[in-house]
Amino acid sequence: MSYMSNSAVLAAGRTVTYFPSPILSFLATAAIVEIRNTIAELDNGLLLPLSAVELVHTNEEWLPVQGFLDRYVVSSHGRVVSLSYRQTGRQRLLRICGSGRYPSVNLHANGTLVQTGLNQLVAQHFLPAPAEGRLRHLLPKDGNHLNVRADNLQWADRGEMDDLVVLQRFHACGVRNAHSKLTPELVREIRHLASQGHSNQQLATQYGVSRPAISLLVRGITWRTV
Q: What pLDDT is recorded for position 48?
């Protein structure tokens, strides 16, 4: 059974819940990075037995990444899984990288590494083609350029990209963004909770932002001055 048709089982990239410790009664949420035998590696660094995690059924869709010979799959939530990580045959959720406006991932093809923006990758696979040729750029509907879910992306033209109001609304980052849901105080709080073992997905849900946004600020790629 393929990765795409096997949506009802645990696999790299899937969202799961687990109890963070025997003495805590609440459920935490995280994404599986990789499964090795009976152990699941989560995106918060935890290693747990498969029996200790439970699949969360979501509306996340997965499609093979075009042009990479069935080496990768991408989800409508902006996650990418390698189907044979470093040619080992292991399925692994790729780490977000890049210092640009949008998060990106590194894809390998024919010995060449290609850094690909997640917004472009998600739009290519999950958004209808632009209705007009002038619509060649992507903007986030909520103003958060780290939220690359398919339902948050919209096509825009060059004029909108150059418009000062649009740029201030959609491209400002951190405290420069009047629509940002986070403040320096919240960022410090999130980093503290992450250091205590809270998962990126749990923090994203708690603070009303995307999981990539949490991942990048925890790693210091965004909010670098805080």
A: 94
Question: pLDDT tens digit string along 149-178?
Answer: 998 888 876 655 555 444 454 445 555 555
Q: How far apart are CA 35 and CA 125, in angstroms?
A: 26
**For residue 25, what are its two tokens?**
């009664």
> What single-letter DSSP state applies at residue 118?
H
CA-angle at 220, arms to 197 and 30, nearest 5°: 35
Q: Which one is predicted more confidently, 54 or 221?
A: 54
Q: Count helices and strands (H / E) in the chain.
A: 6, 13
Average of per-residue pLDDT values in the chain: 81
Residue 112's Cα: distance from chain center in Å?
Answer: 23
Mention every residue, 6+ apart, whose C-beta is less than 8 A from residue 226: 174, 184, 187, 188
The Cα 79–Cα 148 span in angstroms is 9
Q: How many CB atoms lie within 10 A of CB 70?
A: 11
Determine the Cα–Cα distance for residues 83 and 64; give it in Å rounded to an integer. 10
Q: Are 137 and 79 in contact (CB under 8 A)?
A: no
C-alpha 20, offset from chain centre: 22
Contacts of 98 (CB under 8 A, 6+ apart): 104, 115, 117
Q: What is the 3-state secondary structure (H, E, C) of 182-207?
A: CCHHHHHHHHHHHHCCCCHHHHHHHH
Q: What is the pLDDT of residues 57-74, one digit of tens each?
A: 888 999 999 988 789 999
Q: At 69, which amino acid appears?
A: L
